Amino acid sequence: MKALENQNLGNKNKNDEQLQVEAARQDPARFAELYENNFDRVYAYIASRVRTREEAQDATADVFHHALASLPRFEWRGLPFVAWLLGIAANVLSDRWHRVARQREIVADDLDQIGIEDDIEQRAILYQLVDTLPADQRHVIVRRFVGQKSLREIATELERSEGAIKQLQLRALQNLRDRIKL
Amino acid sequence: MANITLADQLEDAIEIMIAEPDSAPPKVDLKIGELLRVAGELRLLPDPNFKAALKAELLGQTLVMPMAVFTDTHPQVPQLQRRQAPRDARLEDILPSLFKAGDGNYPVHRGNFAISAAIHAALIVLIATAGFWMARQPQLTPHATSVLLTDISTYPLPLSTDKTGGGGGGGDRDKLSESKGSLPRFAREQVTPPAIVVRNEQPKLPADPTITGSPELTAPPTSGIGNPLSAILQPPSNGTGSGGGIGSGDYGGVGSGQGPGFGLGSGGGTGGGAFRVGGGVSAPKAIYDPDPDYSEEARHAKFQGTVLLWVVVGADGRPRDIRVIRSVGMGLDQKAIEAVTQWKFEPAMLDGHPVAVQVNIEVSFHLY
Fold it and tell me: Is A35 within 8 Å of chain B by CB?
């Protein structure tokens, strides 16, 4: 019974995604929904394959620009939309590596074989969970890992003690660990 | 207290992880290890500002700069700095007003319409009146034409039937100058050069000694063959020249010239200098005759005129010894000489051989 419910839910999501793609084809402004739904997965996929945030952001921007431009040529092949995006991401990364290290380029036929790996999905979920943290914890995590600020700098920004910020960081990471285990 | 220790340990490990992302994770206890793995996953946590800025850029709401990082100073303002322009940037992002992306969003300024209308009206009036202005101010175009006068039979310098130019000389490298005598017969073609002292008395193919020139030309016979201009009567000598003949010149003639003729000139015939057209000497034909330029001075003064040049056309077809016979000034003489210097001719012919001839060339400068 539950399996049937999951299947129905999957079909519903697929239908919703199809509608979003069609809407975006008609009106590029509707691409926003596809972007919001898939940004974290694409970014997580790229982040697991590059070394710096700058590279990850650069490649992610390329992927979505390319996707927006290529949307009229998108064809449903029984895979979720994100698989197509990850295929573009693979090619974007391959192009970059090819330029730098002459690595093997992934050809179009390989795109169907690119699946959503578990660790990518888990990392994407983790990124989403950060947004659900309490505001002060979220602020510490973002400033610490995105802004690369020291605890002292964050403490100065928030006008709190360094020890308090250290505790907020600990609690935030514990929260994330507990939620991702679920 | 335990939590403080845990937080300190965690912070120390995170500090190392951030500072040295490529190094192996520090050895920590299990509780810290789990949290450190989460922290490791967050090392490249997406910047919320980047996400918002990219979205805005994709939707054409934000146009910005080169890619990179986000500024910390204004985290609430999404500013995506791109290292490279997006490959598929759309035209409406580049020229929003032209491609209607911003159609209707711009205020209307009546002053702009007035200025635009005034400029258009001025342009229309200018175009409409340009024809009248051109008609009143005709531009005189300078032209120049050149004529080789020896090709024109009616010109006051008619082709000669009894006189040719040219000359020749010879000798057999004797130590003495040639002795006096009368000229041999003129013939169109020379078989045997003349000689006062005959070195070969029994030639295998005997022929009368002649010099090249129009057969109508004759010289009064005096005594034996010799150079009529020589003052030496005896002893007989062919002269100090070379190539046979008589005199101090070369190539089988009589005199000090070059060639099988008589006199100071060259190429046969007599009279000195180059041949004139006529008497068996054909006229040269210009095969490359570019027109001269108009001089600036004459153009400004709207001056017209005709320059007459005297030119020797060599056996090689090239003009030389160009002289101005009739000058008009205003720099046109020099322009005429510059042009004729570049001319090339089919050389004049005498008995099938190219010879140098003197010709007149008229160069006319007109404004029309």
Answer: yes
Count the helices and strands in chain B (H runs, E runs).
Answer: 7, 15
> Which chain B residues are Cβ-neighbours of A60 within 8 angstroms?
46, 50, 54
Q: Which of B42, B69, B91 to mutate to test the interface with A (most CBs of A within 10 A)?
A: B42
Q: What is the DSSP letter of A108?
A: G
Is residue B316 within 8 A of residue B347, CB to CB? The reply is: yes
Q: What share of chain B is helix, strand, coil (3-state, %, to 5)?
A: 25, 25, 50
Residues in Cβ contact with B100 at an 8 Å cutoff, skipping those fewer than 6 apart: B92
Determine the longest span between alpha carbons in chain B, in angstroms: 152
How far is it, in rounded angstroms, from Cα A97 to Cα A50? 10
Q: Would you write out chain A's pLDDT as a tens digit for each of its 182 residues?
A: 444 455 555 555 667 778 888 888 777 778 888 888 899 999 999 988 888 888 899 999 999 988 888 888 887 777 888 888 988 998 888 887 776 654 444 444 444 444 556 778 888 889 889 989 999 999 999 999 888 889 899 999 888 999 899 999 999 999 999 888 64
Could you say which of A29, A58, A142 has the minimum Cβ distance to residue B83?
A58
Residues of chain A with C-beta less than 8 angstroms from the C-beta of B78? none
Q: How far apart are CA A139 and CA B75, in angstroms?
A: 12
Distance from CA of B97 to the nearest CA of A (A): 18
**φ and ψ of B362, to 5 deg:** -105, 125
Helix, coil or strand: residue B190: coil
As to burial, measured by CB atoms within 10 angstroms (0-12 exposed, 13-18 middle, 19+ buried), residue B279 is: buried
- Alpha helix positions (H), B20-90: 30-41, 48-58
* Record: contact A169-B4, CB cut-off 8 A: no
Closest CA to B39 of A138, A55, A125, A177: A177
3-state secondary structure of A158: helix
Cis peptide bond upstream of B142, omega within 30? no
Widest CA span in chain A = 56
Cα dihedral across residues B10, B12, B15, B20: positive or negative: negative
Which chain B residue has the Cα nearest residue A52? B44
Chain A, residues 42-81, CB within 8 A of chain B, namely 43, 47, 50-54, 56-58, 60-62, 64-66, 68-69
- Chain A and chain B share a number of CB contacts under 8 A equal to 126
Residue carrying structure tokens 């010149």? B249
